[in-house]
Amino acid sequence: MLLALVTLYELLAQGVIDARVPAHRDWSAASRHIREHHRDGDLIVSAPAWTDPLLRRELGDLLPAAQAGRSDLAPFARVWEISARGRRAADLVAVREAREPDETSTFGALTVRRFDLGPSSVAFDLTSNLRDAQVRRGDRTCTWRRSTAQGGGLGTGPLTPAEHFFCGPEPWLWVGETVTEDLDLQPRHCIWQHPAGTEPITTTYRNVALPGRVVLHGGIYYLHERERIHGPVDVRVLVEGREVGRMRHEDGDGWRRMEADTGTGTGDVTIEVTAPDANMRTFCWAADLRGPAREVGE
User: Fold this and answer.
1) Angle subtended at Cα 55 by Cα 52 and Cα 59, rounded to the nearest 5 degrees
2) Rounded to an integer, what distance in angstroms lies between the CA atom of residue 167 and that of residue 190?
3) pLDDT digit string (tens) for the chain, length 298 residues
């Protein structure tokens, strides 16, 4: 009798589980809807976290590296959320607390919500405009290289992009746009700027418009940060040679945020990275220049 009850319970439980799992047709329908109404620059997220591979399967061509490796919502005017089992995306916690979605549609076991956040506060993305910058190691100019992309495999660190500034002779002393994995194993679209000890590596953007703020996120490749045995990395942000912000990244900090006042007008913006001990300090940063923050979604 007991065995029969257990068997019945398992059959009923499996039926409930199957009923709550979105079918492929649900994902196809939800994806078609988003494609029909998608605008350039829209962000697409999904919840719970295990649905991310399904999101990439259906809509991966609409998820460039800068979106998949985002640091926050500031660059985006609209966000689409695909939700399974009633779960909500972690990115949208503050947004959901402040407002209702602008659109909600249901496709079988999936719910699609759209949030219109309004114009982005980002005026200039430093991360995506590295080619226009000047990179130096101390008083020496780093050279712009075009080669073959290397690395990027499991446990081998971020991909060395085909185009980057080389500051060597050490092979890891390059500055380039890549995607790293932070301490929480989240992808981060960023500028690799490995320190060369106390000799500064600097990336300078000349004569850019200053809307009022600079926001910088930064972290160390997870395999090196999780050991928690290496020294800190020091980051300074300078405007016209004057320090406006600084961050010391210690192992365990994860993907960390720093904000500073730049003033307005135009000027040179420099990101400087140093470390008392550069061993395994695989630092990567993402930064942009922003105007006043939005009410929600930065």
Assistant:
1) 145
2) 18
3) 544 433 433 433 333 334 456 899 999 999 999 999 999 999 999 999 999 999 999 999 999 999 999 999 999 999 999 999 989 999 999 998 899 999 999 999 999 999 999 999 999 999 999 999 999 999 999 999 998 888 877 777 898 999 999 999 999 999 999 999 999 999 999 999 999 999 999 999 999 999 999 999 999 999 999 999 999 999 999 999 999 999 999 999 999 999 999 999 999 999 999 999 999 999 999 999 999 999 888 8
CA distance 72 to 213: 15
Instruction: Give the pair of three-digit tokens for residue 281.
Output: 């300090």
How many separate domains does the chain show?
2
Q: Residue 209: which domain range?
A: 122-290
In a domain, 57, yes or no: yes
CA distance readout (Å), 28 to 37, 61, 82, 86:
15, 14, 12, 18
Q: Give CA separation, 47 vs 41, 83, 112, 138, 190, in Å.
A: 20, 5, 10, 45, 24
* Single residue among 65, 94, 116 that ends a domain in this structure: 116
264 three-class SS: strand
Measured between alpha carbons, how far is 48 from 65 in angstroms, rounded to an integer? 20
35's tokens: 């494609």
User: Strand 283-290 vs strand 187-193: parallel, antiparallel, or unpaired?
Assistant: antiparallel
ω before 48 within 30° of 0 (cis)? Answer: yes
Question: Is 48 within 8 Å of 131 (Cβ atoms)?
Answer: no
What's the predicted TM-score (pTM) here? 0.90
